[in-house]
Amino acid sequence: MSSSINDPKENSETDEAAYAKMMEMQRKAFEAQFGSLEDMGFEDKTKELNEESESEDESEQEQEEEQSGSGSEYENGSDDQFSGFSDSSDNEQNDINKKSKNAVESGPKVIKFNGPSDIFVVPSKKEQKMLRSGKTLKHTTSNSNNDDEQNDSDEDENLERENLQNDLELQQFLRESHLLASLNSANSKSESGASLTLQSMNNDSIAYQDDVVMGKARARTLEMRLNRLSKINGHDKKINRLEKMPIQTRKGMVNKHIKRIEKYEQEAADGGIVLSKVKKGQFRKIEHTYKRDIERRIGTSIKKKDEIRNTKRKRGLKVNSIGRSTRNGLVISSQEIARVNGVDKRSSKGRSKPHHRHRR
To answer: Where along the chain is composition biased (Acidic residues) (predicted)?
Structure first.
């Protein structure tokens, strides 16, 4: 009967012992894989608990030795049971140790602690000023972002200004490139200012500038720029005024220049070259135009033909319109109605104004 009464106590003690053994096995497996907690800088509280449990076990053993023989039999039975459990636990522990060794041999495991650094960073004067004024570092970051955006906008404006300047210089060079190409003729034995200019521009480091242009090309380019500015200001008549010369000489120059243009266009058509369109009545600008500066003597077109073309201009169909459109609608006068109906003005005037005799 005594053994049957002590069964719950025996079960509780065996459960506690099994739990303690399992915890010990887990601790050993953890230390085999990662190392002890003391090596990592932490306190191992399990040792204190183990010491307390060992002291309690010793006191309990002393009390049990003082008890009767039935207690000794119970202890023997419990020891037998515990020894059987310990054998199985030892086997499990050996398996865990083998697995941990295999894991360690497979490769090292590195643990990094990314904590805040202890190095003191001296705040800048701007940050100190912001902190004294009572503003947080968020304001400083926002202000810095605003400054960055402003700098980016300034850089964009500078880039746009530079691109615009480059575009203007490119357009100017394209307008004046015909002068350089025509004045740099291969037939001329002496080197002209245009040829020297083009030779100096062969080097990539030298850009097209006003100081680089020399000789007759420089004079022509400056004259072209002045004429262009004066045309913008509205002095076309003064600019287009031709040099005084005999009319027959001028007519001969015009006819010869027209033949040169026709020859140039025919050669381009035979070679399959598509030329740009020219305004109706104007002379096409060819190499001879710039080389001889012939526009100063014959102009850009024949004035008489321009006048005839403008006077005999084809207008639209002549339509007899009636009324006038306003925002309130179409307004038709009585005269227009009479004109459409074919009423005679005289008869209408006579009917509308009858003669009355005055009596005395």
So the answer is: 51-67, 146-158
